[in-house]
Amino acid sequence: MNKFSHIDLRVNHLERALPFYEQLLPALGFTRTFHSANWRVFAADGELPSAAYFAITEDPKHQPNQNLVGFWANDREEVDRIAALVQSAGGSITSGPEQLPISPTYYAVYFEDPCGNKYELVHRLN
Predict the structure, then answer these.
(1) Is 35 helix (H, G, I), strand (E, B) or coil?
(2) pLDDT tens-place string over residues 69-107
(3) DSSP codes of every residue in 57-123
(4) pTM value?
(5) Separation CA 58–CA 9 (nearest Å)
């Protein structure tokens, strides 16, 4: 069993961040939405409540920090495609996409959402 359940993410400006996540999360496989007044929820395939999901809420006092959420990519092309999507959706690339010295097979892009939350998308070449 994959032990991942969900992410409850705070953004300091939902109106600015939501268009970014509406493009990014479906591209990463979070294709179903379950929104409420306070939460925007993007779920992956599978039966709820066991399906992985990514939930976003606004907290005007939220300050991004050095925490980072990492996602797997199926191949190097997906890393490149998501990097382009991040830029067109209003995010910022902070590093890559490139093969990194973490290991000889590590190809990744690091990026931030419009509110400064940090992410990585990685593909192990082997």
Answers:
(1) coil
(2) 999 999 999 999 999 999 999 999 999 999 998 888 999
(3) EE-TT----S-EEEEE-SSHHHHHHHHHHHHHTT-EEEEEEEEETT-TTEEEEEEE-TT--EEEEEE
(4) 0.93
(5) 8
